């Protein structure tokens, strides 16, 4: 008999952010767009960019959580979402603004740090290569 609800667990690097039973549906954003999960859906894995995750339970209704990049794994009735950071308890507009200001801005900072590191590494390799040829 197929499951009628799901168990959702949202994990951060050092703690469990949320653990919910009786979840009737989940909507997640991917780079290709949003997709929904129902209890009968086949098992799947999805990479998550910074965005909004929505889930629904009978007790809480529809709940929105801002999540940083991570991964979603559905196996049977269990859905595991592992992300770097998550925020909840705000309205949808506030969560969307938080994603844009905090999570996406951090990605831009990380990209600039990676670009600087790549320049340093390439400069080091050039100097090392010229040193070996001398």
Main features:
46% strand, 134 residues, 31% helix, alpha+beta, single chain, 9 strands
Question: How would you portray this structure in words?
Answer:
This protein has one helix and nine strands, in the order E-E-E-E-E-E-E-E-E-H. It is of the alpha+beta class and 134 residues long. Strand 1 and strand 2 form a beta hairpin.
Task: Count up the helices.
Answer: 1
Tell me, briefly, the overall form: elongated
Unreliably modeled segments? none
Structural class: alpha+beta
Percentage of residues in DSSP E strands: over 45%
- Report the helical percentage: 25-40%
Oligomer kind: single chain
Computed CA radius of gyration, to the nearest angstrom? 20 Å
Largest sheet: 9 strands, mixed
Q: Could you outline the blueprint of secondary structure elements for this entry?
A:
Layout: E1 6-12, E2 15-30, E3 33-37, E4 44-48, E5 51-57, E6 61-67, E7 70-75, E8 78-83, E9 86-87, H1 92-133
Parallel strand pairs: 1-8
Antiparallel strand pairs: 1-2, 2-3, 2-5, 4-7, 5-6, 6-9, 7-8
Q: Can you describe this structure in just a few lines?
A:
This protein has 134 residues and is an alpha+beta fold. It contains 1 helix and 9 strands.
């Amino acid at each position: 008999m197929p499951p009628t609800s799901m168990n959702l667990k949202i994990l951060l690097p050092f703690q469990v952010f949320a653990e919910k039973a009786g979840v009737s549906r989940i909507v997640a954003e991917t780079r290709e767009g949003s997709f929904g999960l129902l209890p009968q859906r086949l098992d799947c894995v999805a990479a998550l960019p910074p965005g909004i995750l929505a889930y629904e339970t009978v007790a809480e209704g529809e709940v929105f959580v801002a999540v940083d990049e991570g991964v979603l794994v559905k196996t049977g009735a269990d859905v595991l979402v592992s992300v770097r950071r998550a925020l909840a308890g705000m309205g949808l507009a506030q969560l969307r603004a938080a994603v844009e200001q905090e999570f996406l801005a951090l990605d831009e900072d990380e990209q600039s740090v990676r670009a600087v590191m790549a320049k340093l590494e390439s400069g080091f390799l050039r100097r090392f290569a010229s040193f070996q040829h001398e």
